[in-house]
Design a protein that fits this description.
single chain; alpha+beta; 6 strands
């Protein structure tokens, strides 16, 4: 119905064009690469991070873009991390302890 073939030159250009205004709706630090967005924050700002996750979810639905919440994961770093849980649209996001766990799944 819509979309661009993954791996195409046009896909990258359209992703950049589509997501150019996302920086205006979030306050957490973030990184964008190819077709993904990574938000990161320290433990003290976990409420801001959850608000930003919901803002991105709402923004994506407003633009009718597909989002697979099963591929949205939380990676906790550090020995003293309280490992907060995060919800988007009342769905609990999966948590992992290692990036290798995500690659293996």
């Amino acid at each position: 119905m819509s979309g661009v073939l993954q791996g195409s030159v046009l896909g990258l250009i359209l992703f950049v064009a589509y997501t150019a205004d996302i920086k205006n709706i979030i306050t957490s630090p973030f990184a964008m690469f190819v077709d993904g967005i990574k938000l990161y924050s320290n433990c003290a700002n976990y409420r801001d991070l959850e608000r930003d996750l919901q803002a991105i979810y709402d923004w994506i639905h407003g633009w009718l873009l597909p989002l697979n919440l099963n591929k949205c994961i939380i990676l906790h770093l550090g020995n003293n991390n309280p490992k907060h849980v995060y919800f988007v649209d009342n769905l609990l996001l999966s948590c992992i302890d290692s990036h290798l766990q995500f690659v293996m799944d």
